[in-house]
Amino acid sequence: MSALDTSVVVAVIGAGAMGAGIAQVAAQAGHPVLLHDSRPGAASAAIEGLGVQLGKRVEKGKLDPAQREATLARLHAVQALDELADAGLVIEAIVENLDAKRELFARLEAICTADCVLASNTSSLSITRIAAGLARPERFVGVHFFNPAPVMALVEIVSGLATAPQVAASLYATARAWGKAPVHASSSPGFIVNRVARPFYAESLRLLQEGAAECATLDALMREAGGFRMGAFELTDLIGHDVNYAVTCSVFDAYYGDMRFQPSLIQAALVDAGRLGRKSGQGFYDYGPSAARPVVSELRSGLRIEACEVEGDLGIAQGLLARIEAHGIKVSRAPSRVEPAPTGRCGSGLDPRCGHAVIRVGDAVLALTDGRLASQRARDEGLHNLVLFDLALDYATAGRIGISWSADTTPAARDQAVALLQAAGLVVSPLADVPGLLVMRTVAMLANEAADAVLQGVATAADVDLAMRKGVNYPQGPLAWADAIGPTQVLAVLDNLQAAYGESRYRPSLLLRRTVAEGRALHD
Ligand code: NAI
């Protein structure tokens, strides 16, 4: 299916933040663009604003002056809806209200030609539901741009029950031609990104609520170990708690109260208090002029480590060993001595290596978290002084790592573990003994949600991963990340989390369980 020809007139309705950005994208791609807003003067003001913005880009040498002129020449403000009769594509970006959108599209059906594609930029309403009132719902589709539309590459092309496949395919090709990274999604609550991203916020919020660490420590770990651009607290402070909480509530309600999407009481309290984040001067952090710099907890050791012993295969954490060796510490290797857990839980009993690789340094035993509490795992495996470390995106380059330890760990043994990680160039941040630590459980839950979205036919594995990389800048797609960790390990983490909490929130996706049972990867 080919992209719409650039001679096709694109109409954009709603000249707010999104509409103005989408109009700019279409005009820059070469289409004549008609911009309409029900507020008199809003469309022409938006085009003037774009002129100023593009002027700044010209001044900085980022845009050719002729391109600015050509883009502006293609943008036309129109006062009356009737003037959109020539459009071949209408993109609606008005207020997020079902009745308002339905009423608008009913009017457009009477104005536009029969082959005009009607599209909505809604981020939370059902495409199927908006289309239900239309005479020709097959030409109606969702085109969900991300904010700011000219900058963010992702566009979710959302098909409702009635959307004709060729309409979705044509808009997909068109978004590509506009320089975007489109993905196909079927209309379901949150589409891809707003659904799969929920655990990113939820797991940090939950760990804060359970006293695992302070916000600043959790944020630092998500950035410097997880490789995310921001941690959940600084990001929700930026988005605004009213907005982020509303999205979570709408997804939770839309999935009939599935506990996976349960909103957080501590975020609700911030909304109730009017602490909406940066925009109100206070959220999880304080943004006032006299605000103190948040303190990130760290453990430091004065010990010098000469050698350590590794038993078994550390899998994803293998890069840590090269790093330890590169810092002059002798690493000797031995086969695993640890017996599989009597519960048979780790790795669901499928991978005998899972969770049984350890690094011994002095009295301490270090291991990558498998979702069990440190004290539980120490007991299961008859280990003493067990120190668990968290997942890192790349152990070779991570700046920080989170650790927790079993209740019987002596301060001296913990110090030895910290000294080893510190000697390898890592800053060590403590977490309480919580299942799955922070980065591992967040990534496992992101992958789990991604797997369920694929299982339920919302999108392909490739499109889910692309959406999360391009829509919310994740350093890796959750499914590819789960493949790198090992689907068996991810399943073990989820099984162990579910056992620790006894909640359906952590139930593994059938797709993940099936993938492990079939011995393949999520991206196969
Ligand atoms: P906005 O409030 O900045 O702009 C909406 C504009 O629509 C206003 O200028 C308003 O006067 C106009 N409008 C309202 N009702 C109208 C009608 N019946 N006919 C014509 N114009 C009308 O809103 P924003 O943020 O640009 O969002 C627009 C749409 O895009 C919403 O559906 C929203 O859910 C969606 N969206 C928003 C994102 C965001 O980050 N702000 C991201 C992705 C989608």
Automatic annotation (TrEMBL):
Q: Where is the 3-hydroxybutyryl-CoA dehydrogenase reduced Rossmann-fold domain?
A: 366-435
Residues in 3-hydroxyacyl-CoA dehydrogenase C-terminal domain copies: 190-287, 437-520
One GO term (biological process): phenylacetate catabolic process
Q: Which GO terms describe its molecular function?
A: 3-hydroxybutyryl-CoA dehydrogenase activity; NAD+ binding
Which UniProt keywords are present, listed alphabetically? NAD, Oxidoreductase
**PROSITE patterns to which the protein is assigned, alphabetical:** 3HCDH (PS00067)
**Gene3D superfamilies in alphabetical order:** 1.10.1040.50, N-(1-d-carboxylethyl)-l-norvaline Dehydrogenase, domain 2, NAD(P)-binding Rossmann-like Domain
Q: 3-hydroxyacyl-CoA dehydrogenase NAD binding domain location, by residue?
A: 10-185
Oxidoreductase as a keyword?
A: yes
Q: Does the keyword Mitochondrion apply?
A: no
**Cited InterPro entries:** 3-OHacyl-CoA_DH_CS, 3-OHacyl-CoA_DH_NAD-bd, 3-OHacyl-CoA_DH_PaaH, 3HC_DH_C, 3HCDH_RFF, 6-PGluconate_DH-like_C_sf, 6PGD_dom2, NAD(P)-bd_dom_sf
Q: Which family does it belong to?
A: Belongs to the 3-hydroxyacyl-CoA dehydrogenase family.
**PANTHER family tied to this protein:** 3-HYDROXYACYL-COA DEHYDROGENASE FAMILY PROTEIN, 3-HYDROXYBUTYRYL-COA DEHYDROGENASE
- Mind telling me what this protein is named? 3-hydroxyacyl-CoA dehydrogenase
